[in-house]
Amino acid sequence: TNLNAVLPYHDLQTLSRSFKDNLANRLLCKLLEESGQRSSATLIGLPNEIKLRLAKYLPIKSLLALQSTCRDIHNTLNDNLLWHDLCIRDFEKAALVSIPHTSESLPQDKNWYKLYRIMYAQ
């Protein structure tokens, strides 16, 4: 006998994972969303501190793509200190100091997202 005809689902682990990822998790998230609760099974369900910590490791294009996914993520990733850390990560300190009013100001006193955009454009 043909084993595939008798056991069409011989890779049950893959089938189970596919069901969970493509159906069960989506339904759970939708159910929680409709009931006004946050799902901890998604990125949105994570505390903002964790989201910000993860964001520091993303390439800028990925971070901007993630930021455009929903309002909650967008608001979280607009954190001024996140953009301060990204400026330090992606640009040389000498270049940052050459921008007017960056050397003597405190990090929280300036718009680091705007500064990042200026530096990225150069």
Descriptive report:
It comes from Rotaria magnacalcarata. This is F-box domain-containing protein. Residues 40-86 form the F-box domain. The protein is mainly alpha-helical and 122 residues long. It has a domain at 9-42. Helices cover 63% and strands 0% of the residues. It contains eight helices and no strands. The protein has helices at residues 3-6, 12-34, 48-55, 60-67, 71-77, 80-90, 93-98, 112-121. The longest helix is centred in the N-terminal third of the chain and has 23 residues, at 12-34. The mean pLDDT is 80.
Write a brief structural summary:
This protein has 122 residues and is mainly alpha-helical. It has a domain at 9-42.
Spatial shape: elongated
Query: Would you tell me the structural class of the helices and strands?
Result: mainly alpha
Largest sheet: none
Element order, helices and strands?
Answer: HHHHHHHH
Q: Which stretches are poorly predicted, pLDDT < 50 over at least 5 residues?
A: none
Distance between the first and last residues' Cα = 68 Å
Give the number of DSSP strands: 0
The average pLDDT is: 80
Question: What proportion of the residues form beta strands (DSSP E)?
Answer: under 5%
Domain F-box: 40-86
Organism: Rotaria magnacalcarata
InterPro entries: F-box-like_dom_sf, F-box_dom, Fbxo7
Protein name: F-box domain-containing protein
